[in-house]
């Protein structure tokens, strides 16, 4: 009986590093697109729309038999996962209009905390002491970030609102992961990605149409940035994480995603000149340590932005 050969031991770690670098550019590309006059909803729409379009031939070549055998339950789960993924990107990308890249990316990557809480509240799984400690630290870090941004000039046009949108984005991503894990269990990676991204794109196109959002009269620079978002952070970044899950633990992948706010904050400093206020830096550090502890204490933590 044949089996798929295992990659070299170092390869998943290299792939995770490439995925992390790609995902860290997500907030930067979103800001650049917004600077070109593209609305946040249009940025989210084209990020998922281009990604779904690019993955379509791969999904149909490799997974057409799986897709033809989809059950009603799987289709319903795909629509639910896509709905929450669409909300995640719509709220998180919108948050970048109002708050700093550092605060937004730090808060939007708190999904291991919410997944841990959901596991306790919904599935009655008892949290570990490490999980409880991580949640407490992260909550304290979030308060520091909110307080610092409310007191700091230049933190954004409305940092409190932006930070809240980033948190809502994290809650939506947590719901997407919880639903997506069950759907992914019975599907190959190309089929799963195509269904999730495609459903999310359909919801976003519908929302853009209902809201009268301009999707087509964009500058050449905007189109290039939006395509880069789909190819880099969305397809390369998220696919690298999903591929690595087959060879390393989900908890390790969740811990790796803590590098996203660090990478995004560094890029925002280099590209936009965004720095840290002292209290914001304290909150940022507490939040990352808290998420790290929560991810270590939660057996099935999710992936990042």
TrEMBL record:
Keyword Membrane found: yes
Transmembrane segments: 12-32, 44-63, 75-95, 101-123, 130-148, 160-179, 191-210, 222-241, 248-271, 277-295
Annotated GO CC locations: membrane
Keyword Membrane: yes
Keywords: Membrane, Transmembrane, Transmembrane helix
Domain of life: Bacteria
A UniProt-annotated Pfam family: EamA
Signal sequence annotation: none
Domain EamA: 16-146, 160-294
SUPFAM superfamilies according to UniProt: Multidrug resistance efflux transporter EmrE (SSF103481)
Name under which the protein is recorded: EamA domain-containing protein
Organism: Thauera aminoaromatica
